[in-house]
Amino acid sequence: MNLLLFNLVTDLDHPILGFTSHWIRELAARVDSVEVITMRRGRVQAPENVRVHSVGAERGYSEPRRVFEFYRILSGILGRGRIDGCFAHMAPEFAILAGPVLRAKRIPLVTWYAHPSLHWRVKLAHVFSHQMVASLPNAYPWKKDKLTVIGQGIDTTLFAPDGTPEENDLVLCVGRVSAVKDHATLLRAAALLRRPARVVVLGQTAGPEDEAYLLDLGRLAAELGIAVRVTFAKGVPPAELPSWYRRCAAHVNLTPAGFGDKVAWEAMACARPCLVANVDFAPTLGRFENDLLFRVHDVADLAAKLDNVLAQSAEQRAAMGQYLRGQVERWHSLPRLAEQVLEQLRRFAPCGAATRRRVSRAARLAMEGNHG
């Protein structure tokens, strides 16, 4: 298979989207070639069968210029040889631009979208796509007629325990520093804990609103009398995240249903307990659902459950973490995601449909022969 892939940012060091480089690597291991069209390019380390083309956001190109570059690059790729399928990751704009061209050439398009924001671009990408995919059922905000849930695609070789001892008073919260992440509930819960804990909020801001929100969090920590125990640390590249997860006694993710925050699965893959507010995580939590799932915005519920986790021994937390890692490997591993994406594309490939018809006919004739 020769794969076309649309990606917002292709940069190993990007603190939020750096993981997509690992997705590209995993897909490349299963196909003949991958042509990536990306909005922005940074540091790239890709297999030999991958070529990355940027429409120029990192060079400051205007939007009309980026549209021109997109079609120029797409035309060149389609003109050089056969493309068997296209996967768009969080890039509904690219799916819309390419949709009519891909339809005309009978190239199946599968689009990943996992975010509660629903705008006309998502709806139009839905129309042009053969299939929509997401990490969790409620992570896709529109009609479910084309939706297949395929897991999050966590690199469990990168996000893995390595024997690093935990710091039994460290509570970690990784992710973008934004109001929707509800860090205030974590700070208020931390002030209620029976045993004092250090809280580290690790993540980037993205604009003036987030910067103002960060200042508000600092003021709240001071008002609660826990400022000396709260650290706001800047986001780090994906390669540096595992060392943070491995050290914490517990990780906390406060986003509600409708989000599929991969950081929660990353922490679990590092064999750490992770408390979550998103009910869609219940299947991953499995037998620890009652211990780790707290009610959205409920300070007392989070404080009680966090207290219970911190009161356990390091050995008990390690056992919990190993179970959660197994759940991530089962439902949200990167190899599973890559296979699921390619399976969706094969479903809609013209030759795939013909092959299925031939197989069905052969099976029918065989059955008729057996009964004869």
State the gist of this model.
This protein is α/β, with parallel strands linked by helices and 372 residues long. It has 14 helices and twelve strands.
Molecular structure report:
The strands form 2 sheets. Strands 3-2-1-4-5-6-7 form a 7-stranded parallel sheet, sandwiched between helices. It has a 5-stranded parallel sheet with strand order 10-9-8-11-12, with helices on both faces. The protein is globular, with a radius of gyration of 23 Å. The protein contains 14 helices and 12 strands. β8, α5 and β9 form a beta-alpha-beta unit. With 372 residues, it is of the alpha/beta class. Residues 352-372 have low confidence and may be disordered. 41% of the residues are buried. The chain has helices spanning 20-28, 63-80, 92-104, 120-128, 183-192, 208-223, 241-247, 262-269, 282-285, 289-292, 299-311, 314-331, 334-348, 350-371, and strands at 2-10, 33-41, 50-54, 85-89, 109-112, 131-134, 147-149, 167-174, 198-202, 230-233, 248-253, 274-276.
- Shape descriptor: globular
Class computed from helices, strands and strand pairing:
alpha/beta
Question: Can you give the helix content as a percent range?
Answer: 40-55%
Rounded mean pLDDT is 93
Oligomer: single chain
The total of beta strands comes to: 12
The low-confidence parts are 352-372
Radius of gyration: 23 Å
Counting H and I runs of at least 4 residues, what is the number of helices? Answer: 14
- N-to-C span: 39 Å
- Strand composition percent: 15-25%
Strand order of the largest sheet: 3-2-1-4-5-6-7
SSE succession: EHEEHEHEHEEEHEHEHEHEHHHHHH
Question: Which sheet architecture does the biggest sheet show?
Answer: 7 strands, parallel
